[in-house]
């Protein structure tokens, strides 16, 4: 092979390598974008669950408060019994 043929072949290989690198970089960027979209979606779902939990806890607190208002004596006696049980469990 002549020197010109080798140089031409080397240049062709360099162009091919550059094209493969560019293609690989594009694939990596696409994968990164998909991962970022999935992470944002996961964060959005998590925040929705946190808001749902907050609403449910608020509703539970409201129900509990209404129960204490409607039955004050039962609530106080229940709290007393619960306190005695917890105190005995901790004391042992």
Question: Could you describe the 3D structure shown?
Answer:
The chain is mainly alpha-helical and 92 residues long. The protein has one domain (3-91). Helix content is 96%, strand content 0%. α1 packs across α2 (72-91).
Q: Based on helices, strands and strand pairing, what is the structural class? A: mainly alpha
Low-confidence stretches: none
Number of strands: 0
Whole-number count of domains: 1
Described by strand count, sense and barrel closure, the largest sheet is: none
Count up the helices: 2
Index terms:
rod-shaped, single chain, 92 residues, mainly alpha
Short description:
With 92 residues, the protein is mostly helical. 96% of the residues lie in helices and 0% in strands.
List the helices and strands and how they pair.
Blueprint (H helix, E strand, L loop, with lengths): L2 H68 L1 H20 L1
Helix pairs in contact: 1-2
């Amino acid at each position: 092979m002549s020197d010109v043929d080798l140089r031409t072949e080397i240049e062709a290989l360099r162009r091919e390598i550059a094209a493969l690198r560019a293609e690989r970089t594009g694939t990596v960027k696409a994968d990164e974008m998909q991962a970022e979209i999935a992470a944002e979606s996961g964060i959005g779902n998590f925040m929705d669950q946190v808001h749902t939990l907050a609403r449910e806890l608020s509703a539970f607190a409201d129900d509990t408060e209404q129960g204490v208002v409607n039955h004050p004596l039962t609530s106080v006696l229940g709290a007393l019994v619960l306190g005695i049980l917890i105190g005995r469990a901790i004391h042992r």
